[in-house]
Amino acid sequence: MNYFRKLEIKDIIKRALKEDIGKRDISTTAIIPKDKYAQAVLKALENCVICGLSIAAEVFRVQDKNIKFKPRVLDGQKIKKGKIIARIEGNARSILSAERAALNYLCLLCGIATETRKYVNAVRPYKAKIFDTRKTIPGLRELQKYAVKIGGGHNHRMRLDEMILIKDNHIKLINPQSQFPNPKQIPISKSQTTNLKYIIERIREKISNSIRIEVEVKNLREFKEVLKLKPDIIMLDNMSIKDMKKAVSIRNSQTPSAEGGSAYGGKTKHQIPKLEASGGITLKNVKKVASCGVDMISIGALTHSVNSVDISLEIL
To answer: Which residues are the active-site residues?
Structure first.
């Protein structure tokens, strides 16, 4: 639980248990004696990457602090179908009542970690890193992004306050007359992107140099204009493989090669924009995207539409 803010995670777990149990588990209380002791195991019913054992353990502890949860594997470990991943001992009623909430978390997080690992392995020959997005289940973002990291991926911004990302809708809402009262400041251009120069300059005057600025572009014309502004990252949104290769070539011909550093490739200091591929990326085409030479590949499907792994709780 060290990765998480414990109080927030406990609140999430309490809501999940309340949602699932309601006032009481009438099936279990009607059938199982109050003092019945039980032993159970969690078993993987398919190959997967394990993630979320500490969350599952916390679910049982919140339900009953006397339940003993003993993991047999570690988060990040790849296991095969049939593997016992944890042993549980304690009051039978408590185990059964907490079962579904614990499995819901565990199955989802294992699914995200497993899918992320597939993407990470697919691009391994190249420098591109796999990133998640903010397309998460409301209330579960911290857990889902943790699963992406366990799978070998990287986290894009957790919240809107961490990084500036100027997208097409931001640009559409820019009113040059209101932004730049002095007509001489307004660039004479049919391109909205040109106005970004003034927006980015103002942003840099107001924020810390440590806050990254990313700009979304949809074609090579926009890319060439934005490249001149030297943001930290340029997002290539739904661009073709051919155009992405051209964008990488143009960037590489105009700037020195980037050195290592953080998951984002180190601070650019407004000189070496990183290139992020986004939109329409699947396991079938991610290797081709990585081969273009982009630095980052962001994939919303890692968190918003991943399949959960099948894991069962079996009473011994």
So the answer is: 100, 135, 167, 216, 237
259 DSSP assignment = P
Q: Is 18 left (phi over 0), alpha (psi -120 to 50) or beta?
A: alpha
Sheet containing strand 274-278, edge to edge, reads 129-131, 296-298, 274-278, 233-237, 213-217, 164-166
What is the spatial distance between Cα 123 and Cα 287, in angstroms, rounded to a whole number? 5
Instruction: Locate 19 and state its tokens.
Output: 């949602």
pTM for the whole thing?
Answer: 0.87
Regarding whether 163 and 43 lie in a shared domain, the answer is no
Does residue 1 fall inside a structural domain?
no
Same domain, 131 and 254: yes
User: 76 vs 110, 121, 143, 312, CA distance in Å?
Assistant: 9, 14, 14, 19
The answer to whether residues 157 and 49 belong to one domain is no
Which residue type is seen at 141? R
Each residue's pLDDT tens digit, 86-104:
999 999 999 999 999 999 9
- How is residue 77 written in tokens? 């470990």
